[in-house]
C-alpha cells in the first residue's frame, strides 16, 4: 500500500463549523492514524481574509486542507501556501451543494464542468509535491447516470489519483445542504463499480456510514472510508479505528483518559484567548451510551460558555462520568 492510499484508508469528513482546529486536536487524541480534514476554506479567505485560515497544530497531522474555489491560479497559490505550512494533502471541494457555495462557483456545481476541475487540479499539482485529491458526489440534478460520473472521473484523473466519493447525488436547487445529505438515496454499489472500473485510482467512499462493521465491509470494495457526522456526534467510534481499521497494536484509549489528555491543550488555548465552550463542544458526545453521559453534557452546556470558565469546569463535568468498564446504558437511563 502506498503512502497516499494509507493516508485515505480512513478519514473524518470536512464539516463547516465543526472540524475546526480544536475539534481536530481532540480527534487526534482518539486516533493517531486517521486523516483529518479542515473545514472547507475558500481561496478568497486565504488570499484576502484578515485571519490566518491555514493555522493548525502540528499535533493534528496528518491533516488535509479542503479548498473551495474554481480559479486555477488562486487554487495553485493556496496549495503552495498550504504545502509550505505543512499540510499533508490538498482536497478540492466538488461536493457541497449549498447556494452560497454555488454562488461562488465551487462545490458540487463543478461536477458539471469537469474540464475546469481538471484545470484546477492540474494547476495545484504543478505547484506542490503533496497529493491533490477531489471530494465529489455521484452526480448532480438530472446528470446522475454512471456514464456521467465516469466522464467526470476520466476528465480529471490525468491529474488526480484519489477521489473521495459521497455516494449520493446532489440537487443544486430545491434541497438544503442538510436535505442533500439525507434525501438523495445512497448508492454504494456505484462507488464500488467505480473502483472496479478504475482499479489504478484510490477511491474512498462517504455517506451514511456509522459503525466499525460498516467501515470494514466497505473496505472490501474500495480503498478508503470517510465518516462525517457520526464521528463528530459519537467520537467514541474513533477510539478503536487505529486497531480495527489500521491494524495497530496500540491500546484503545479510555474516553476519560482522552479528556484528561486534552487538559494541557485546553489550558494553553485559554491562555491564548480561546473560550472553553468553543473547545469542549466537540467533546460532548464522547460518553454517549455510558453512565454519566447526560450530566456531562448538561454541565458543560450550562457552564463552559460562562466568562472565565476554565479547566475546573471540565474536571467537574468529568466527575459525573463513570469509567468505560461500567455497563453500557441507553442515554435515556443516564
TrEMBL record:
Known EC number: 1.3.1.91
Keyword tRNA-binding on entry: yes
Secretion signal, residue range per the UniProt entry: none
Alphabetical list of InterPro entries matching this protein: Aldolase_TIM, DUS-like_FMN-bd, DUS_fam, DusA, tRNA_hU_synthase_CS
Active site annotation, chain numbering: 96
UniProt-annotated binding residues for FMN: 14-16, 66, 135, 166, 206-208, 228-229
Cofactor(s) of this protein: FMN
Keyword vocabulary terms for this entry: Flavoprotein, FMN, NADP, Nucleotide-binding, Oxidoreductase, RNA-binding, tRNA processing, tRNA-binding
Catalytic function, reaction form: 5,6-dihydrouridine(20a) in tRNA + NAD(+) = uridine(20a) in tRNA + NADH + H(+); 5,6-dihydrouridine(20) in tRNA + NADP(+) = uridine(20) in tRNA + NADPH + H(+); 5,6-dihydrouridine(20a) in tRNA + NADP(+) = uridine(20a) in tRNA + NADPH + H(+); 5,6-dihydrouridine(20) in tRNA + NAD(+) = uridine(20) in tRNA + NADH + H(+)
Gene3D superfamilies, sorted: 1.20.120.1460, Aldolase class I
GO MF entries: flavin adenine dinucleotide binding; FMN binding; tRNA binding; tRNA-dihydrouridine20 synthase activity; tRNA-dihydrouridine20a synthase activity
Top enzyme category: oxidoreductase
Keyword Nucleotide-binding (UniProt): yes
Pfam families to which the protein is assigned, alphabetical: Dus (PF01207)
Domain DUS-like FMN-binding: 12-319
Record site feature (Interacts with tRNA), residues: 93, 178, 181, 297
Family note: Belongs to the Dus family. DusA subfamily. Belongs to the dus family.
Purpose of the protein: Catalyzes the synthesis of 5,6-dihydrouridine (D), a modified base found in the D-loop of most tRNAs, via the reduction of the C5-C6 double bond in target uridines. Specifically modifies U20 and U20a in tRNAs.
Protein name: tRNA-dihydrouridine(20/20a) synthase
Species this protein is from: Orbus hercynius
Gene, per the UniProt record: dusA
Amino acid at each position: 500500500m502506498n503512502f497516499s492510499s494509507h493516508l485515505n484508508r480512513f478519514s473524518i469528513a470536512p464539516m463547516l463549523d465543526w472540524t475546526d482546529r480544536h475539534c481536530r486536536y481532540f480527534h487526534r487524541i482518539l486516533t493517531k492514524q486517521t486523516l483529518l480534514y479542515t473545514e472547507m476554506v475558500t481561496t478568497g479567505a486565504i488570499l484576502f481574509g484578515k485571519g490566518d485560515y491555514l493555522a493548525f497544530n502540528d499535533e493534528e497531522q496528518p491533516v488535509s486542507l479542503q479548498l473551495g474555489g474554481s480559479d486555477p491560479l488562486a487554487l495553485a497559490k493556496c496549495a503552495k501556501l498550504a504545502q509550505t505550512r505543512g499540510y499533508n494533502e490538498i482536497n478540492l471541494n466538488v461536493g457541497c451543494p449549498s447556494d452560497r457555495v454555488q454562488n461562488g462557483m465551487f462545490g458540487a456545481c463543478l461536477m458539471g464542468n469537469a474540464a475546469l476541475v481538471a484545470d484546477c487540479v492540474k494547476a495545484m499539482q504543478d505547484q506542490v509535491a503533496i497529493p491533490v485529491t477531489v471530494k465529489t458526489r455521484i452526480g448532480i440534478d438530472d446528470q446522475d447516470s454512471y456514464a456521467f460520473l465516469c466522464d467526470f472521473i476520466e476528465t480529471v484523473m490525468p491529474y488526480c489519483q484519489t477521489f473521495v466519493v459521497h455516494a449520493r447525488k446532489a440537487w443544486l436547487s430545491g434541497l438544503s445542504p442538510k436535505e442533500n445529505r439525507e434525501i438523495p438515496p445512497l448508492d454504494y454499489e456505484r462507488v464500488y463499480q467505480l473502483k472496479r472500473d478504475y482499479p489504478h485510482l484510490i477511491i474512498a467512499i462517504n455517506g451514511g456510514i456509522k459503525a466499525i462493521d460498516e467501515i470494514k465491509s466497505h473496505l472490501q470494495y474500495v480503498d478508503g472510508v470517510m465518516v462525517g457526522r457520526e464521528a463528530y456526534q459519537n467520537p467514541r467510534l474513533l477510539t478503536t479505528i487505529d486497531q480495527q481499521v489500521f491494524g495497530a497494536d496500540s491500546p484503545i484509549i479510555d474516553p476519560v483518559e482522552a479528556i484528561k489528555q486534552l487538559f494541557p491543550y485546553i489550558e494553553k488555548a485559554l491562555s491564548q484567548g480561546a473560550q472553553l465552550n468553543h473547545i469542549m463542544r466537540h467533546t460532548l458526545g464522547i460518553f454517549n451510551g455510558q453512565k454519566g453521559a447526560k450530566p456531562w453534557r448538561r454541565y458543560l452546556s450550562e457552564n463552559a460558555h460562562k466568562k472565565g470558565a476554565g479547566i475546573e469546569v471540565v474536571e467537574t463535568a468529568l466527575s459525573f462520568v463513570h469509567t468505560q468498564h461500567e455497563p453500557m446504558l441507553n442515554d435515556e437511563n443516564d
